[in-house]
Amino acid sequence: MTENERAAESRRMRILIVDDSSLVRLYYRNALEAADFDVEQAINGIEAMEKVVAQTFDLVVVDVNMPRMDGLSFIRSLRRSASEVAAIPALVISTEAGQQDIDDSRLAGANYYLVKPVSEANLIRYVAALTGVPR
Amino acid sequence: MARSEPAGRPDIRVSQEEVRRLCDFLYRRTGMLFSDSKRYYIDRRLAERIAATGSSSFQSYFAILRSETEHEIEYLINAFTVNETYFYREDHQLRCMTSELLPNLVTRKRAGESIRIWSVPCSTGEEPYSIAIWLMENWKDVDLYNIEIVASDIDTRALKAATEGLYGKRALIRLSPNLISRYFEPVDGEQYRIDPGLRNSIQFTQANLIDAQDMRRFRGFDMIFCRNVLIYFDDASRRIAGENLYDSLQPGGYICLGHSETMSRISSLFHVCRFPDAIVYQRPEADDDRK
Hints:
The structure holds two protein chains of two kinds.
Chain A: H1 3-10, E1 14-18, H2 22-34, E2 38-42, H3 45-54, E3 59-62, H4 71-79, H5 83-86, E4 90-94, H6 99-108, E5 112-115, H7 120-131
Parallel strand pairs in A: 1-2, 1-3, 3-4, 4-5
Helix pairs in contact in A: 2-7, 3-4
Chain B: H1 16-30, H2 39-52, H3 58-67, H4 72-80, H5 91-105, E1 114-119, H6 126-138, E2 146-153, H7 156-164, E3 166-168, H8 177-183, E4 184-186, E5 191-194, H9 196-200, E6 202-206, H10 212-215, E7 221-226, H11 235-248, E8 249-257, E9 271-274, E10 279-282
Parallel strand pairs in B: 1-2, 1-7, 2-6, 7-8
Antiparallel strand pairs in B: 3-5, 4-5, 8-10, 9-10
Helix pairs in contact in B: 2-4
């Protein structure tokens, strides 16, 4: 294994949490940081869009109901972005548990859908799976 | 100009009559009753303020106090209120919040709806931060609702300290090392700063519990923590504060008082709820039994 490969292997995955509730962001952030992920936060889709074009992320974790720009609109504009940004996987975490909500989110371009409440263990499990981190 | 902490000027004598006038004034403005039994305490704080304002007599100090141009009333209230507390104080109430109060409250709420919690008085922030930490650590539905925590105090100096979020080791004595590392950043050997994300999740604002006008800004709370302040009030102020708190609660909302306090003798508006971890007062669901 070369130096570069080793560096890439040990690079910490960067996660963007998009949720309008500050306590929810904090709860998810604490869980993910304890599992060695780097975490950035955004309070709505607009702020999230600004962050994904300016920084590198391995996954976005997105709430659906948010003011100004909701989660599905954010994922749709993410998927229409330049190739690198468009390829970021998206995990939707929502209070809505209906099949229509899940279908809508898949259509918008989400990779996976979890219904709140999400335990710390489950959050880590799905984030690890979607970023390819062995656990 | 730098001014050393004044110890009071020995040449200024304050008579019992003057102390009574001052206490009357404070009572009218804040509802807090300072009796003769606290005379020593009052004298010391008063002497400090007289010296700090450079007043030559009680009369000239009292004139400054009443003129309201110098914020002296605020400084005096700050000097008269006691602000030492610690994280996870009376944690049996926090346990009651997650084991009984929230499960009851959310039966009326849809997922994603707001749950509004008010910490008043919040002193230097230990209580509202403790509520937030407790919820994240102990409530499995913490991400299912939009939890809003508002924290208020009459003492602006305490509020400033709360927003700065800097604490000594004594305030953290009840927290495990794991919790401290999750929610605090060591600043130097002695102090810890609260996580900025946690600080920003709480809305700090001044409030006066006996000022009905002021209290109108605080409405629709599901839960109020109002601990160890009513003991400073006399019966009349307690009743006013009790009614104001009632109006701040949603029907069905709960209020937690300090362990030595009871709402039953203050107001008949509330239902008493005896839970295994704590006695809590509830605003009835229907308003028609308001007396």
